[in-house]
Amino acid sequence: MEMTARHREYWQRNLRITGILLAIWFVVTFVVGYFARDLSFNFFGWPFSFWMGAQGALVVYVAIIWFYARYMNKLDQEYGVAEED
What we know:
mainly alpha
């Protein structure tokens, strides 16, 4: 099956946003976690490194999921492949 130019553009945009969001996920999960001990100040009575590892990363993950779902809904509508209600 041959892909049309419009189909190819759709998947390029999909892969681009997926790559960007995965890069953000990687930074939050591994880079911030690696340098967390250097973040030694109190944040709401807890060490900031603990807060970032336990709560901050989860907030970022939920934001990534929300953004991806919203972006893909708009992209699907733009290219006419959205699900019908």
